[in-house]
Amino acid sequence: MEQYRCNSCGEKYSVTATRWRCDCGGMLDLVKDIPKIDVAAWNHFPNSLWRYVETMPFLKDSKTWESVTMGEGQSPIIVLDPLDPTTYVKVDYVMPTLSFKDRGAAVLMTKAKELGVSKVIADSSGNAGTSIAAYAARCNISCDIYLSANTSPKKIAQVKAHGATIKEIEGTREDIAAAAQKAIQEETVFYASHVYNPYFYEGTKTYAYEIFEQLKGVPDSLIIPVGNGTLLLGAYYGFKELLENRLIDKMPKLIAIQAANCAPLVTAFESGEITPAPVVNQGTLAEGIAIAAPARGKQILEAVRKTNGTFISIEEDEIHSARAKLAYLGFYVEITSAVNYAGYLKYKKAPEETIVIPLCGAGIKS
Ligand SMILES: *Cc1c(COP(=O)(O)O)cnc(C)c1O
Ligand SMILES: [Zn+2]
């Protein structure tokens, strides 16, 4: 049986609907057996991220996901420019709510349904809230989403459309999280947090499984945008499981991208810190990654260092031009997602290096 373990003090807890952090304040990780990956079994499942359900910590033969799934996952992987055949984009905005967050939300809300919860609360800069709201609707679970009044209006409209109650909070992204956490304590409900709840990463790890299948192996490097690190850590865990099962023989290098105006992890990486110091968000167009105090910062830095990866920071003027260039190549992404391509343009790729850039959110969102 899987358990939670505190990343700071090592304390263990059983997985319940209301446990979301350690009594010491530390972040919880899942302790579970290393999944035995049976590649041949994948074809017994529909063509979605649920191909990999047997690698996720659900009760054996649990079918809860069948009533939750909206077909998320298995996004296309495409050579961006035929002149550079080893650079791919993974079109992760091809998802039910138009962002990669559906990977995590589908799995997290399946777990919530399995635990029998009737209400969830989440806080978000936009896309995670949209995704949790959609899957909560799918599960017939009521849902409050805490977000900033400055969130893109189209994202707020999306959340509302799914019937979630919106709680608009004045203040920083951290103030919004604090308001949600206060409500969690007062109402003792399930915290459907993409940052805190480890089940979210069981969903985002499928990003790695899919790349492994689509490229028939492991790429040399992955460009990954980082705010709270849910895609970065998910990709890291996914490739680690493939490595532990000897399906691949190395980890891809993680090239993490932040906006220069809100880059606590870049600063920590460059000065050799183990844990990032919080920064003040100077304001960035990349609203989806503007996280001044990433709660899993220590784990993100560790993952990047372990893969021999690096960090790149992007200036504001580079964001718009990257978005325009991508659109001229056919791919229209939301502003935050242009940062990924800007990071790629700054990265000094070797000619034969295989690299995957995620297109995380659809252009009509912002
Ligand atoms: C959530 C999100 C990110 C960043 O993900 P983190 O988990 O915060 O690192 C990047 N781009 C888009 C479009 C997102 O929705
Ligand atoms: Zn602890």
TrEMBL record:
PROSITE patterns: DEHYDRATASE_SER_THR. Residues 68-361 form the Tryptophan synthase beta chain-like PALP domain. SUPFAM superfamilies: Tryptophan synthase beta subunit-like PLP-dependent enzymes. One of its GO terms (molecular function) is threonine deaminase activity. InterPro entries: Ser/Thr_Dehydratase, Ser/Thr_deHydtase_PyrdxlP-BS, TrpB-like_PALP, TrpB-like_PALP_sf. Keywords: Lyase, Pyridoxal phosphate. One of its GO terms (biological process) is L-threonine catabolic process. CDD domains: Thr-synth_1. Pfam families: PALP. It comes from the Bacteria. This is Pyridoxal-phosphate dependent enzyme.
